[in-house]
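Can't paste images in this forum, so I'm doing it all in text. The chain is below; anyone willing to post the predicted structure tokens underneath?
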Amino acid sequence: MANPEATYDSLYIVRRLEESLHGVTEGEVQLFGYLSHLLGVFRGAPIAEWGYRFARTNWGVPFSREIADALKELQLSGQLRVLSHDALAPVACTEGGRELVGMLDELELFQSRRPCLEAACSSASAFPVATIRQGIRSEPTLRSASGHASPQELLAGPALELLYEQFGALREVLGDESSDLLVPSSVWLSYLIEKSSELPT
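Text version of the structure:
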């Protein structure tokens, strides 16, 4: 059985973005799942309690095996449908998928992650997906992992301290009183996007 957190997150992201993106690819689910995890870290949630981990692939993007497995299982069970059979294979929720994510929304298990998922998905209204993907390459642990030939676990190692420093500076600027994670998400993404111009293409 697929990881429950990855299953919920994948369904939430697809349901939230399927109309604006005309279907959601696995790479986009991985991207917004990782951004959601980062926002959870910003809120102070322990990394180990997110429910699943990410690694940097050889292509320089975040990847979670649990999300990949959840997407496959959701397609097999009829909760997601494939919109085309090209290389990207975007998916959308079926009626059953929308009903399932609606039921999962009510479970206490997922309440704490909903604001992170919503803010991450809302970022797609502020920035093009390609720009978000480019900016995330400058996230400290992802950028640090780029020096290795093999896949490297993200949100781990010495670069994690730099991520905490960035989030601390963000809180100093914005304050802690705002419950809307879209504001810190947008400000931080703007910073990362600017930093990404320093990366080699």
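The mean pLDDT is 92. The chain has one domain: 4-196.
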